[in-house]
Amino acid sequence: MAWWSGLVPLLIFLAGSQLLVSCDDTDLSPDNVRWVRFIVTVNDTWDPDGCIATIATGKLVPNKKSNETKPITVGSCDHGPLVYTVTPGQAPDKMSVDLTFHSSSIEDAAPPTCQIPWNGTYVSPRARPDTDPRDDSPLPGCFTIDSREGHSTTFYWFYLLDWAGAGH
User: Which of 93, 99, 103, 167 could lock 117 by a disulfide, CB 3.0 to 4.6 Å apart?
Assistant: First the structure.
């Protein structure tokens, strides 16, 4: 699990660098999100050599079908189209990013899906007793697990890296 200790600082660095170049668009709504860039991490436990990789996607436009978007490649671990929609959220989140990764690793099951509750901003780290603050990511995200042929597991992490609304 040594890779995990490197993932959180990487996410914090990437979020910090994006805060310098991205606007914090508090007027974002599901209807005016123009694009989102994601950080995607895949851990393929079924690979005998092990495979863990993290990438930042290009700007992905919402509401596309899997055959309308260019596949992403997550190192040598996985590839496939990543599609998402932005819908109204439930309080306290004003939006939900509902994503599906059409993974090349998942052959006999539905593709991995995940829902990211989102306010249109980065996440403010919150102090919680008995937790390491480095475990809190400023990036809104979600995690899911899927299996290959019912016996080997693949783990997926998805984070919102940056985005633009209709006014930007």
Answer: 93
Instruction: Write out the residue range of the structural domain in which residue 70 sits.
Output: 2-165
Q: Give the torsion through C-alpha atoms of 1, 152, 80, 143, to 10 deg.
A: -50
CA-based nearest residue to 80, from 50, 102, 48: 102
67 confidence band (pLDDT: 50, 70, 90): very high
The pLDDT value given to residue 9:
54
Q: Which of 2-17 are b and which e, b meaning 16 or more Cβ less than 10 Å from the residue's Cβ?
A: eeeeebeeebbebbee
Give the number of domains in the chain: 1
pTM of the model: 0.79
The 8-class DSSP code of residue 97 comes to E
Cα separation, 59 vs 133, in Å, equals 29
CA distance 91 to 146: 28
Token pair 């052959």 in the structure block, residue: 107
Question: What is the average per-residue pLDDT within 85-93?
Answer: 88
